[in-house]
Amino acid sequence: MKTPLSITSRLAPGRTITLANVPAGMEGLVIADLARALAAQEDAPWPTLVVICRDIERMAELERALPFFAPGVEVLSFPAWDCLPYDRASPHGDIVARRMTTLARLARVKGREGGSIVLTTVNAALQRVPRRDLVATQSFSAAPGNALSLDEVVAWAEINGYLRTSTVRDTGEYAVRGGIVDLFPPGLPAPVRLDFFGDTLESIRSFDPETQRTAMQMRSLDLVPMSEFQLTTETMRRFRMAYVAQFGAAQRGDLLYEAVSEGRRYPGMEHWLPLFHDGLDTLFDYAPGSPIVMEAQGGEAAASRLDQIADYYDARKHGMEHGGGAPYKPLPPETLYLTAEEWERRRGEAANIALSGFALPESKDVIDLDGRAARSFAPERADPEAPLFDIAAEYLRELAKKKRTILAAWSDGSRDRLATVLSDHGLKGTQTIGSRDAAEALPKGTIGLAVLGIESGFETDALALIGEQDILGDRLVRPKRKARRPQDV
């Protein structure tokens, strides 16, 4: 495989480098090597690498794979809302929390502080977001010993979308008991307990939400908003003025207008996000000039999404004009999403890397990475007489003599079961590993056993990764729930 440096040296704004022969499963390795190469270049101006996946499933697969292929490299995820365009439902709180955590992190990055990977989807990259400077000011940092009052923390939590409860158990909740504030910020695995003495923050500790017992002491805490807009006097005034300017005077029974006027949150109000702000940015504004990796079929996914947005807007507008059901006043698509022209222009301003699973003639803009799909044992699985595990064990044993070999499973349990079965069929010389770096340190001929949730394996001249599904076949998954149509909601 070509060295990452030979790829990054060709990157330039407005230029697209296509990486050919990158089969499914190999993307994580390629992206990890690119991110490491960019971080190692002292004169490179790029703080991060933006990876745009075609859908949320592909993003989730890369999110599982990258910590293995690039341990130590920060991976930030930025998913799209999990609701339809112009829906009556709000995005799930966990989704918004992940989005705001990433935006806040990027908003505070300056120059070479980055060296991170931002994973996102076409749907998320097409959507407008709060301004970078606004998100930076809305973030909140604290440390023991700081002069900070309990009332300041409570006020911040209220206007940033946290829900007050008697006991904190879920992300986005907070509770107050005497001089203690319990808070479950997005991006943290456990809630935190802030203990105040007067106007001084004495301590910050994590605690178990089930037992409510405190655990480790924390040296500092970074908080981000739980929502992409705040309900303050200023934003409520801005909303009312913009709403009337867009749709005319509000009528009696306009539940959205009434809720905002009273400072209450209303289901689906995020779909009027532009009315709460005096301007919106895009994800590209949070990572200016950063190289963009686009997955195969990303362009088709963007075109399909823009068509879907236009269809849903037309359906809502038709319903508003002809009545029927609860009124829904949709904002023009260009206020919430990038247009097709903006999408092409913003991407075109950056250095672009396109991934292709096909072989292409090499040129100055095409680099062949010589990857190929891992061997499939489907023929053996289909033949009830074939000794599947004997064949797999022999294949892995011979493969490990030629190159670094990793056997990847979906969980600790499945890894151990698969290793035991193959060992019973003659496969020896295996060792559990937690990263690609650990695989590189293994003695020659030793097979690394890893937990790595990928759909299929791959091979290069120097590395072979055989996935659990390559040997055992597809995992059982639940069928997807059918998406709602706009006229249903």
Question: Please, could you describe this protein's structure?
Answer:
About 35% of the residues lie in helices and about 20% in strands. With about 500 residues, the protein is of the alpha/beta class. The strands form five sheets. It has a seven-stranded parallel sheet with strand order 3-4-2-15-16-1-17. It has a six-stranded mixed sheet with strand order 7-8-9-10-11-12, with helices on one face. The protein is globular, with a radius of gyration of 25 Å. Residues about 475-489 have low confidence and may be disordered.
Q: What is the number of helical segments per DSSP (H or I, 4+ residues)?
A: 18
Give helix % range.
Answer: 25-40%
The share of residues in extended strands comes to 15-25%
Based on CA inertia axes, which overall geometry fits? Answer: globular
Distance between the termini: 50 Å
Largest sheet, strands/sense/barrel: 7 strands, parallel
CA radius of gyration is 25 Å
Overall pLDDT, averaged? 90
How many distinct beta strands? 23
The class by helix and strand makeup works out as alpha/beta
Q: Strand arrangement, largest sheet?
A: 3-4-2-15-16-1-17
Break the fold down into its secondary structure elements and pairings.
Blueprint: H1 4-8, E1 16-20, H2 27-40, E2 48-53, H3 56-69, E3 75-78, H4 93-108, E4 116-121, H5 122-125, E5 129-130, H6 132-138, E6 140-142, H7 150-159, E7 163-164, E8 173-177, E9 180-183, E10 192-197, E11 200-207, E12 214-217, E13 221-223, H8 233-247, H9 255-261, E14 280-281, H10 283-286, E15 292-294, H11 298-322, H12 333-336, H13 340-348, E16 352-355, E17 366-368, E18 372-373, H14 378-382, H15 388-400, E19 404-409, H16 412-424, E20 430-432, H17 436-440, E21 447-451, E22 458-459, E23 463-467, H18 468-472
Parallel strand pairs: 1-16, 1-17, 2-4, 2-15, 3-4, 7-8, 15-16, 19-21, 19-23, 20-21
Antiparallel strand pairs: 5-14, 6-13, 8-9, 9-10, 10-11, 11-12, 18-22, 22-23
Helix pairs in contact: 2-3, 4-6
